[in-house]
User: Fold these one by one.
Assistant:
Number 1:
Amino acid sequence: MKFFVDTADIAEITRLAETGFVDGVTTNPSLIAKTGRDMLEVVREICAAVEGPVSAEVTATDHETMLKEGFRLAELADNVAVKVPLTADGLLTCRRLAEQGIAVNVTLCFSPGQALMAAKAGAAFISPFVGRLDDIGQDGMQLIADILQIYDQYDEFATEVLVASVRGPAHVIAAAKLGADIATVPPAVIHALLQHPLTDKGLAAFLADWEKTGQKILG
Ligand code: E4P
């Protein structure tokens, strides 16, 4: 399973990239707005900081302008994946960009039918938002199961399932059990995945006992 980090915070991305846990980055207009910086500069910097795909989202809603924005974003770096919303104009834009060999991440997916259409439009990634479905009392992880089942039926679908709107380690584990290709995860969730109170307690006890021996491995 690949991990993408869901942030536009360059310092955080650089720190996480060094750990080797990060296979790519996703941004969206809200995450870019948080930086208070020029979007094109931020995307360029993120693309230089990681080797994997970096999703950068168009902000127009009509096909013609989306396509122009898509080409502009794609020329920033080889590892840009253009993100388009799951609308009719977005899927037409996806098809045109995919025809030019540009990777497209179709975002704001909330139903299996939408995911099917995105695969038919040649999306490299489909982003179903599990947390936002859970928020309205629906089962976000059931959507992931449904999409994986549909995509598995057809060899011609090369679209990777990128689980988005992840709120905690439980979402990541459930997505991994289902065999989702990728989870895009806020930095705090990546840190939380590493932690367990029994690890901290066990380590403290080992160190206390070691201290009593008066020994040192080094020096
Ligand atoms: C995905 O690409 C989106 O940027 C993101 O996962 C949205 O998550 P949110 O619902 O926490 O805003």
Number 2:
Amino acid sequence: MDNDKTLFSSLKEVLDTFKLCLSENKEVYLEHYVAGWRGLVKFLNCLGSVFGFISKDAVNKIKILVTHMEGENGSQYVTVQSMVKYELDNELVDLTKRGIHPESGCRTLLRLHRALRWLELFLERLRTSNEDGKTSVMCSESYNESLAQHHPWMVRKAAGMAFCVLPGRPAFFEVMNVGPPEQVVAMLGEALPLISDVYQITEEFYAQHNMLDLP
Ligand code: 1PW
């Protein structure tokens, strides 16, 4: 599954994958969450090599989750909720400081979850921007409001440098490969509430279990 060499097709397809994440009783399916992230990584890779260090970390996190999902206890890793319950019940999570479970599903997913908030904020800015909106500014504002708070200085610095060379809005829309700008805006308007739902449900579940600061 991790040798997925298929090319990025369209951001619509990627965002559609996130739509599949929510079960009827509002649990988050890991399979679709991971598939959504795979698509995002392909998208990042189309934005230029400077995004390499960003996508590399996401790829690592995806790999860790897939290893859990395909491992002998894979049946516990169907939804975020079942994963959290299983890992907590079996003391498989380092709760306060890094220890013997540096690759727990819970702490790994938390990193992607925080990054999803960045994506949500960024795409929302993009959706409401006008023709001369600067993607680099939208991206760094979204980052500063979300993920940056969890990153050390070095990572913030490197991320800031990557944002500076983001393609401008027209080229960015082209890479998204959704169609003319009106269609991109409409697609985002449809997809963003669902991404937001996935984010909020995960956030609340992690908060209930006091797991928003896992080391
Ligand atoms: C243009 C749209 C952008 C949205 C894609 C978001 C991708 C997010 C990946 C950010 C990764 C930055 C470099 C890695 C930092 C890691 O140290 C950090 N990982 C994340 C995902 O924040 C924390 O992981 P760690 O070191 O605690 O294992």
